């Protein structure tokens, strides 16, 4: 990958980062690879803007691995795709001798990147990964980035015209064999969009139909 610098932010020039790039490029589609690269830049730019102290290598690894769980190697998995990606990143980092504390921070960043309201209160890697993901998917925080930053990221790693539909399809393809794990998450919306007969689980209904709600359950 050519060296790209955006507002002083670069992809780390290290063995770990180069091998992460190579692994993810060989494993993911170009769509997911470029999305993941943008996630790193959005997260790093946000961190620099706020003066957050973070490790660029760890943020890059979290960004690059966050969608690995959607790829063909996990077609038999019954875990949430976020957990698959987090586990894959941990194995990768462990093979490079990264400390267990740092590995745990990356695991949390990937495992919780689709869980709103939590990552911002965790370690910087988790907070910035989730922020980068939401900026790239739905434009959350769009105005907090300068026009120059947005233009430069798009020039280097552009969203395609069909990005939204293509990414939704990639999510569906990685989840359709395990729809049950999407329940209670925003990914259930993806399943419902692609499969009209998919039934979202309703928490209120679960409580009202539970054994505890039965009027004749008694204490026995």
Describe the protein.
The protein contains ten helices and two strands, in the order E-E-H-H-H-H-H-H-H-H-H-H. It has helices at residues 15-27, 30-50, 56-65, 81-95, 100-111, 124-138, 147-156, 163-175, 187-194, 203-208, and strands spanning 5-6, 9-10. The termini are far apart. The protein is globular. The model has no long low-confidence stretch (mean pLDDT 95). The protein is mostly helical and 220 residues long. A two-stranded antiparallel sheet has the order 1-2.
Notable traits:
220 residues, 2 strands, mainly alpha, two-stranded antiparallel ribbon
The helicity comes to 55-70%
Shape: globular
Strands of the widest sheet, in order across it, are: 1-2
- N-to-C series of helices and strands: EEHHHHHHHHHH
What's this model, at a glance?
The protein is an all-alpha fold.
Task: Indicate the topology.
Elements: E1 5-6, E2 9-10, H1 15-27, H2 30-50, H3 56-65, H4 81-95, H5 100-111, H6 124-138, H7 147-156, H8 163-175, H9 187-194, H10 203-208
Antiparallel strand pairs: 1-2
Helix pairs in contact: 1-3, 2-3, 2-6, 3-5, 3-6, 4-5, 5-6, 8-9
């Amino acid at each position: 990958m050519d060296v790209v610098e955006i507002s002083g932010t670069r992809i780390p020039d290290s063995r770990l980062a180069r091998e992460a790039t190579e692994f993810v490029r060989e494993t993911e589609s170009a769509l997911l690879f470029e999305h993941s690269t943008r996630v790193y830049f959005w997260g790093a730019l946000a961190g620099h803007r706020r003066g957050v102290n973070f490790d660029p290598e760890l943020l890059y690894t979290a960004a690059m691995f966050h969608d690995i769980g959607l790829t063909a190697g996990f077609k038999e998995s019954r875990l949430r795709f976020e957990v698959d990606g987090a586990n894959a990143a941990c194995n990768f980092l462990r093979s490079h001798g990264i400390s267990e504390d740092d590995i745990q921070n990356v695991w949390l960043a990937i495992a919780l990147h689709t869980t709103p309201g939590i990552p911002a209160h965790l370690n910087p890697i988790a907070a910035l990964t989730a922020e980068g993901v939401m900026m790239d998917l739905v434009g959350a925080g769009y105005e907090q980035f300068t026009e120059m930053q947005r233009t430069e990221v798009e020039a280097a790693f552009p969203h395609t015209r069909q990005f939204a539909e293509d990414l939704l399809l990639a999510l569906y393809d990685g989840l359709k064999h395990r729809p049950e794990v999407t329940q209670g998450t925003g990914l259930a919306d993806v399943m419902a969009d692609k499969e009209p007969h998919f039934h979202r689980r309703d928490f209120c209904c679960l409580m009202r139909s539970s054994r505890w709600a039965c009027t004749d359950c008694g204490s026995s």
